[in-house]
Amino acid sequence: MESLLNRLLNYYQIDENDYQKIIAPVDETNFAAGHQFKDIDKCVELVKTAMKENKKIFIYGDYDCDGIMSISILVKMFSYFNYPVAYHVPNRYLDGYGLTVKRAEEIVENGYELLITVDNGVTAFDGIKYAKEHGLQVLIFDHHQTDDVLPEADYILHPVVSNFGEVATSAGFVTFMFAKECLGRFDQYLATLAAISVVSDMMPLRSYNRNLLRVVIAKYKENSFFNIDLLREKEPFNEVAIGMKIAPKVNAVGRLVEDDNLLSKTVLFFTSDDKQLLLNYNEWINEINNERKDITKTAVEHSKEIDTSTPAIMTVIDEKEGIIGLIANYFAKKYHKPTIIFALDSTGEVYKGSCRAPKGFNVVDAFNTLDKYLLTAGGHASAGGCSVSKEYFEEFKKAFNDLAASTPIIEEEEESIDLYINEINRENYELVESFSPFGETWQSPRFKLSHIRTQSLLYSRDSQHILTSIGNNARLTGFYFPKEKVSENQFVDMIGTLRLSTYYNNVTVEFLISEILGSTK
Question: Which residue has the higher pLDDT, 304 or 375?
Answer without folding.
Answer: 375
